[in-house]
Design a protein that fits this description.
Elements (H helix, E strand, L loop, with lengths): L21 E12 L2 H8 L8 H14 L1 H4 L10 E9 L3 E12 L4 H19 L7 E11 L6 E2 L5
Antiparallel strand pairs: 1-3, 1-4, 2-3, 4-5
Helix pairs in contact: 2-4
């Protein structure tokens, strides 16, 4: 059942006024595949634009904080923690993991997914001059804890 519909069937922001604030956390990931030479360039710090992973990490953090401006009907949230990690997996893959936390009345799944997605897009943007064929794939929610709907754990994938 879609929960962003009002009594007239119109899209609306869910009213969370009566929900108790609870500790909530969500973890999402994005996978970026590229040429092995591109990943090697990033890892060796030889990219002309500087530390690609650091810029992508900051972009993901900034995006999580602004999710409500990007995704219609998302609540503006006071996140208490945002962590974005980029890990090179030889020979041609970067796994991006975003973790968002808060104590609030609604979940942080969209913030984690947005952080992972924007970090991946930033990685692409910074490297597109040397590898336009990069592929962003498998953006998904890994885990979610807290809230009325309970916990969620995605199936393990390679």
């Amino acid at each position: 059942m879609l929960t962003h519909l009002d009594a007239q069937g119109q899209a609306s922001m869910v009213d969370v006024t009566s929900k108790a604030a609870t500790s909530r956390e969500a973890v999402a990931e994005s996978i970026v595949r590229m040429l092995p030479a591109t990943l090697e360039l990033i890892q060796q710090g030889g990219h002309a634009k500087g530390d690609v992973f650091a810029v992508a990490r900051i972009a993901g953090i900034m995006a999580a904080k602004r999710t409500h401006e990007l995704i219609p009907l998302c609540h503006p949230l006071m996140l208490t923690s945002i962590k974005v990690e980029l890990v090179a997996q030889a020979p041609d893959t970067v796994r991006i993991t975003a973790r968002c936390k808060l104590a609030g009345q609604t979940g942080v799944e969209m913030e984690a997914l947005t952080a992972a997605s924007i970090a991946a897009l930033t990685l692409y943007d910074m490297c597109k001059a040397v590898d336009k064929g990069m592929v962003i794939e498998a953006t998904r929610l890994l885990t979610k804890t807290g809230g009325k709907s309970g916990d969620f754990q995605a199936e393990q994938r390679p």
